[in-house]
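Still learning folds. Look over my entry:

…
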Amino acid sequence: MPRSNLSSRLICAISILLSVGLFGMPANAQASANTAASAGDPPILVELFTSEGCSSCPPADEFVQKLDALQPVPGAHLIVLSEHVDYWDHDGWRDQNSSHALTDRQSAYVRALGLSTPYTPQIIVDGTGEMRIGDPQAVERVFQQAVSTPKISVRIGSVSVDQGNPGLLRTHVETDENTGKENADLYLAIALDHVESQVLHGENGGRHLTHVAVVQQIAKIGKLPRGKSFAQDVEIKIKPGTVPNNIRVVAFVQESGPGKLLGAALWKAAP
C-alpha cells in the first residue's frame, strides 16, 4: 500500500478513536476504523504501563482495548500488553495485577529512552516509540514508523495448560534468523485476555474498570544472536487458579536494553 494512502487511513482511524472519547464507539465508527488486520500482518507491540490506582489511566486502558479490538493500523497486527506497575499500590488501592517486575521493566525503558521519570499511563510502541494518545498526529507518526520497520517471523506452537498447583503452561516457540545488527532476547509474556475490577478505594474508588491483555509475567526464554534462529519447547509456571480460556501468550524478540522490537506473535485461547 502506498505510504500516503496508509497514512491517511491510519490517521482517520485514530481520529475516530479519539473523537468518540474512547467510550462507546458507534457501529458505523467501528466499521470505518476496523481494517481487518490479520495475524499474518507484521506485528506492532503496544505496551501500556498502567495502574488501577491512577485516575488518569482508565482512558488509556480503554484506548488499548479499542486498538486491540479494532486493529486500526492498515497492514499491521497490533499486539497489546497491559503492564500494571506497583508504585501506586500505597495510595489507597492495591492493584491485584500489579507487579514490581513490571515496574522494573518500565524503569528500564526510562533509562533506555533517556526519559526523566516513569509515569502512568505510558505507552511504548515496538520498544522505541513513546506515544501520547491525546494527539492523533503524534499517534499516527509512531504507528507509521512502526509499520514501516521490517520484522522477523516469530511463531507460537500449540499451547497447553496443566492446571496443577502451580499450573504449568507448555508451548513451542520458533523464530526466523535474526537479521538485525544487534543481539536480541526472546521473551514470553503470559497475560489474562480480559479482567474486570470494582475499585473500592484510591483515586478510582467506586469505578468499575475493564482491562485487556493484562500481563501476569514476562519471562526471558532465550537469546537470539545475530544471524541465528530459535526453536525450543517452553514451560512456564502460571498463577494457581488461572483460567486457561482467559489466557493470551505473546512471544517477542527485542534487542537488549530493552531496545527495538524485532518480531512478535500472539496466541489467544479460543472463545
In short: The mean pLDDT is 88. The chain is about 25% helix and 35% strand.
